[in-house]
């Protein structure tokens, strides 16, 4: 079935992306750190630690994927799917801490008027970093689009911010011989880019944890499913959705004739609930109203 296949894909994507990221980031960290020490560049060393922080976020991806797969239990009747959101939030906090540390280091570099001499080694390392991190970002983004995983999207942001910071440093390398302050300024720019990514990740995960209104697309799809299963006289309205990773609880109202027997109304509601579960994987609960109370509130 479509829904079970989707769940399997989500688990596989998280594990593959997580382990691939860890391997790639550790190798890039070693390469960047070596280049940073060789050139004395605070920007490159900061970028190296940014890359290593990606490995930690990938570990969080793996842990989050493992927890979110746990089935529902007595304490968590809707499953553990929101571990995905918590993992994304933690990644955002880590990014924010990394950004703050880089701002402080860059500030000290500028205050002390420290300059850096870049060379061919720095250029090669930054080119390798930009290409590798963008490939990892594209892989994570693709998995996020396929599975609607916020933690994969957060990890993709982490990779992308690293690719951008490396690109900024690469551009600055060619200006290093003309401006003594370029290394400190680049470190500051990298930190701001990381902070922006952290803000987006944190705000997105908090927004989802607090609860979101069902999208207009979701409402329209469910309405069309109801029309297909019964008729357009049901007037589906008053939609609410609660998402727990792969598991979505959906509630809404329908209108049925006043004189319809309770058994018939129950059969219609059950048919709609089964059809919605089959089509979208949502577990729905339908409230029945008399037909004259058809004021629509969505």
Automatic annotation (TrEMBL):
Keywords: Membrane, Transmembrane, Transmembrane helix, Transport. Gene3D superfamilies: Cation efflux protein transmembrane domain, Cation efflux protein, cytoplasmic domain. InterPro entries: Cation_efflux (IPR002524), Cation_efflux_CTD (IPR027470), Cation_efflux_CTD_sf (IPR036837), Cation_efflux_TM (IPR058533), Cation_efflux_TMD_sf (IPR027469), CDF_Transporter (IPR050291). This is Cation transporter. It comes from the Bacteria. Residues 218-290 form the Cation efflux protein cytoplasmic domain. NCBIfam families: CDF. Belongs to the cation diffusion facilitator (CDF) transporter (TC 2.A.4) family. It is a multi-pass membrane protein. Pfam families: Cation_efflux, ZT_dimer. The chain crosses the membrane at residues 12-35, 85-104, 116-142, 163-180. One of its GO terms (cellular component) is membrane. The keyword Transmembrane applies. GO terms for molecular function: monoatomic cation transmembrane transporter activity. It is found in: Membrane. Residues 19-210 form the Cation efflux protein transmembrane domain.
């Amino acid at each position: 079935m479509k829904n079970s296949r989707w769940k399997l894909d989500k688990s596989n994507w998280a594990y593959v992306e997580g382990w691939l990221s860890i391997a790639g980031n550790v190798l890039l960290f070693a390469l960047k750190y070596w280049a940073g020490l060789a050139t004395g560049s605070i920007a490159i060393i900061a970028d190296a630690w940014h890359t290593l922080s990606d490995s930690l976020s990938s570990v969080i991806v793996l842990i989050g994927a493992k927890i979110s797969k746990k089935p529902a239990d007595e304490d968590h009747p809707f499953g553990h799917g929101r571990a995905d959101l918590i993992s994304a939030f933690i990644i955002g906090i880590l990014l924010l801490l990394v950004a703050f540390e880089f701002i402080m280091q860059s500030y000290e570099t500028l205050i002390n008027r420290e300059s850096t001499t870049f060379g061919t080694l720095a250029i090669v390392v930054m080119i390798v970093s930009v290409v590798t991190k963008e490939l990892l970002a594209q892989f994570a983004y693709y998995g996020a689009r396929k599975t609607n995983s916020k933690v994969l999207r957060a990890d993709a942001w982490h990779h992308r911010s690293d690719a951008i910071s490396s690109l900024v440093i690469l551009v600055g390398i060619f200006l290093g011989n003309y401006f003594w302050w370029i290394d400190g300024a680049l470190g500051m720019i990298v930190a701001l880019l990381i902070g922006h990514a952290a803000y987006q990740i944190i705000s997105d995960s908090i927004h989802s944890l607090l609860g979101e209104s069902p999208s207009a697309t979701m409402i329209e799809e469910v309405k069309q499913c109801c029309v297909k299963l019964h008729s357009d006289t049901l007037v589906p309205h008053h939609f609410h959705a609660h998402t727990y990773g792969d598991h979505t609880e959906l509630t809404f109202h329908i209108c049925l004739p006043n004189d319809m027997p309770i058994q018939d109304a129950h059969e219609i509601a059950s048919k709609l609930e089964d059809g919605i579960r089959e089509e979208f994987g949502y577990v729905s609960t339908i409230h029945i109203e008399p037909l004259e109370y058809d004021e629509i509130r969505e």
